[in-house]
Design goal:
heterodimer, A: 336 residues, alpha+beta, four-stranded mixed sheet, 26% strand, elongated, disordered N terminus, B: alpha+beta, Ubiquitin-like (UB roll), DNA polymerase, domain 1, 5 strands, 34% helix, binds FE2/S2 (inorganic) cluster, 2Fe-2S_ferredoxin-like_sf (chain B), iron-sulfur (chain B)
Chain lengths: 336, 154
Amino acid sequence: MYRRIKKVLGGDILKKRGKGIGVTFYGTGYGNGFPDVSRAYARLLEDGKVEILVGATEVGQGAKTVMVQIASETLNIPIEDVILVNEDTSKAPDAGTAAASRQTYNSGNAVKIACENLKDNILQEAKKILNVNSKIGLVCEKGSVYVKTYPSKKVSFKEIANINNNLKGEGVFIAHTTQMDENGQGAPYWPYTFAACAVEVEVDTETGEVTILRAKLVLDVGKAVNPTLVEGQIDGGFAMGVGYALMEDVGLKDGKMLNSSFEKYIIPTSLDIPNIEKVLIEYPEDTAPYGAKGIGEPVLLPVAPAILNAIYDAIGVRFYEIPVTCEKILLQLNKG
Amino acid sequence: MKIELNVNGKDYSIEIEEHLRLIDLLRDKLNLTGTKEGCGEGECGACTVIMDGRIVNSCLVMAFQAHKSKIITIEGVEDEDIKNAFIEEGAVQCGFCTPGMILAAKSLLDKNENPSEQDIREAISGNLCRCTGYNKIVSAIKKAAEIKRGGRNV
Ligand code: FES
Ligand code: FES
C-alpha cells in the first residue's frame, strides 16, 4: 500500500497540470488601406434555376457551400436551384483571395447584393406578368412569385425566364479598410471577430512534453451560416494553434529554412489533439451577410497564448518565444 | 523488369523500371490519381494504400516490391459506410489527406468493428491533416463503425 501511494505521488510530481486562457480580437479582410473588393453576378437561367458567378476560391473552408446557402436564402429558393460557378476565371468576376478570413463576409456580401438585385428584376418582371401595380405585394418563394393576398395568382421563375431571358443582378462589395497612421493608430478593419480559448495542459517535467488534456473555444461568429463548417474551422484552427505553440518551427538561418521537411517540421497528429468544447456566440453583425463575420484565422489566434499561460500555471515558467518545445522546457526547468 | 500485381481486384502485368516507386506505378502508369503524394518521404501518409491487408506508404515501397501483391487504393474502396460517414460528419476540408485517412480507417475497421477513440486516433496517427484538426475524422470513423455494427441504416 505504502509503495503504491508513493508511486502515485511520484507520478503527480513528475507531471504538473495547469490551466490557461487566451482572448483575442481580429479584423475581417485585408484591412489597413489595402483595397478589398468582391464582385458577384447572379443570373436567372432558362430552367428557372439561378446561376451565381463569384470568384471565391474553395480551399476546403466551405466557400462553395456558404455562397450557395447565402444565394438560396436571399432568393428564397432551394439549394439545388443554385448553380455556382466560382473557380472559372473566364466567367466568374474577381472576388479577391481566399485569405484574411474574408470570403464569407466580403464575397458573401457581394453574392447577397447580386441576388437582391436579381430578385428586384425578377419581381419587376413578375409585376408585369401578374398585372399588379407594384412589387410591394409580391412574395418570392421556392422559385415562384405570387401575390401575397391572392396566392393563386402566381408565376414560376421558369415562366419568367421564358418571357425575359436577360434577368441579371450584379453585386459589388467594398470593405472598410483604412491605413493606420505612423504610430499604428487608426481604424484599419471592420468588422472584428472575438475569440477566447481555455486549455488544461499536463507538463511532463522529466521529458518536457506538453499534453493538452482539455480545450474549450468560444467564438463570436456574428452568425454561423453553416455551423458544421464553423466547427471544422475551430478544430482545424485549434490544431494549428497547438503546432504553432509547441512544435512548428521553420528554423530560418541565413535566409534558409532548416526544417523544410515533415521529418523536422513537426505538426500535430491525431494523438496530440483533444476533443474541443465549442461555443458559438451569434450576435449578428449589421454590415455582414445575415450577420456572418470572418472566422478562419480568429479561431487560431487565442490558442498559443492559452497554452503558454497554462504551461506557466503548471511549472511557473513564462515563455516569450514559440514554439515551446520539450527541449526549451527542460532547459528552463533544469536552470532552477 | 516485369511485375504482376492485383490492384483493386484487377490483375496487371506491367513492365517497370527498377527505380519506380509504388506511388508512381499507381498514379502515372495505372492512372489511379486518388492516391496523393504529400512528402515523398514516409512522413505524411497521404500516399497510404493497403498492400496485402496492411497499410503502407506507397512512396516508400518500390514498385518491384509489390510483385505478386494485392493492392487497394482509394478507387477500390467499395465501403460506402466510411465514405458517407466522412461526408456526413464534415470530415473533409481540402481533401488532400482524405484518401489516406479513409484507407487507414478501412484497415482499422476491417480488423476491429468496435474501436475505442484511442484506437481510432492511433490508427490515423500516421496520417497528417492540416485542415480538420482530426476531430471530425475521428467522429466519422466512430460513426462508420457504428453503422457497420448495425447501429444505423443509411
Ligand atoms: S507521400 Fe508518402 S508518406 Fe508522405
Ligand atoms: S482535409 Fe486538408 S489535409 Fe486533411
